[in-house]
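Retry 2 of 3 after timeout on previous attempt. Resubmitting structure tokens to design endpoint.
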């Protein structure tokens, strides 16, 4: 292990083992330390000399960045970057980077699995034989999949994979993306192999069409100030009565109070949530105990491949930055001072 190389510090990795990342960093001249904390005071103290900060979900705000005078790069352990003040980092000459699409397949698969579980009312029937009798039936019966329209909000790699899973079995897949708020031509007017049709048969349309026409809505948007509580009271009012809602992206994309109201009034028949406003959520959170909510503990990303893939991709960002001056997947363009 190098004695005098630049210091790379892991703040938190949750349930992932950082050993492979530490080894990659050490093989490339870094000293690597692991804190396993989200406490800003501990991070500021223990990572005071760090050149690189490898972060899970610890909040990295301007105040903390200012307490790390040697920091040059923040490498995240996810595709999202909402826990970092990216603008402040850029002003301070600090790169921020993510692991990109390492778990796109897993997250899309998890979302589609949750979709099928809701449609077939598995949370109700899985109680057999203790809470569900042989002839017991839910108030809202399972729907025929081929008669349903699926709406996808967010058409990055995960949303597109989800659309591709859904398209062969449902009536129609509609897609909306905040980056391309333009309807796509109908299939007969679209050049072959273009748009989403080539990877799943989805048709890009406007937000109102997705909300009002979909029997299932799956969220795959990034969390930004513009998308926070993207689904609120107004959005739920525009949805079809009895819609199914899936969220594997970020908890605060949904106004939780508005969702509870939509569930209680039947606007939303059932919701499946892998992400929450606060993680881990309070056991008293009314969404956790709601009879029409299926919850999983932020595991959509999880597989035998991603448990190592995330750690390696995160460390590779730091290694490439050291070797070339630019990380693999930067999300900002820092003001780097001239020596």
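Retry 2 succeeded. Sequence:
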């Amino acid at each position: 292990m190098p004695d005098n190389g630049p210091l790379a510090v892991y703040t938190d990795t949750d349930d992932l083992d950082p050993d492979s990342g530490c080894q990659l960093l050490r093989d490339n001249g870094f000293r690597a330390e692991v804190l396993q904390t989200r406490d800003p005071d501990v991070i500021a103290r223990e990572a005071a000399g760090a050149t690189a900060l490898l972060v899970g979900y610890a909040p990295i705000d301007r105040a903390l960045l200012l307490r790390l005078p040697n920091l040059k790069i923040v490498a995240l352990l996810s595709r999202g970057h909402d826990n970092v003040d990216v603008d402040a980092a850029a002003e301070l000459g600090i790169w921020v980077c993510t692991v990109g699409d390492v778990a796109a397949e897993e997250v899309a698969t998890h979302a589609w699995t949750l979709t099928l579980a809701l449609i077939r009312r598995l949370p109700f029937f899985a109680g057999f034989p203790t809470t569900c009798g042989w002839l017991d039936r839910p108030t809202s019966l399972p729907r025929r999949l081929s008669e349903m329209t699926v709406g996808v909000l967010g058409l990055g790699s995960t949303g597109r994979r989800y659309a591709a899973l859904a398209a062969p079995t449902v009536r129609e897949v509609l897609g909306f993306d905040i980056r391309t708020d333009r309807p796509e031509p109908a299939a007969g007017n679209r050049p072959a192999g273009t748009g989403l049709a080539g990877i799943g048969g989805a048709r890009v349309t406007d937000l109102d069409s997705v909300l009002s026409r979909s029997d299932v809505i799956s969220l795959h948007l990034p969390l930004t100030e513009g998308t926070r509580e993207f689904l609120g009271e107004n959005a739920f009012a525009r949805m079809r009565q009895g819609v199914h809602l899936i969220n594997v992206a970020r908890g605060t994309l949904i106004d939780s109070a508005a969702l509870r109201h939509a569930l209680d009034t039947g606007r939303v028949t059932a919701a499946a949530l892998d992400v929450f406003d606060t993680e881990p959520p309070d056991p008293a959170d009314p969404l956790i105990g709601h009879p029409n909510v299926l919850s999983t503990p932020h595991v959509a990303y999880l597989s035998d491949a991603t448990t190592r893939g995330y750690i390696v991709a995160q460390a590779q960002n730091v290694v490439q930055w050291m070797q070339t001056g630019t990380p693999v997947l930067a999300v900002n363009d820092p003001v780097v001072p001239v020596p």
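Attempt log closed. Residues 104-295 form a domain with the Rossmann fold fold (CATH 3.40.50.720).
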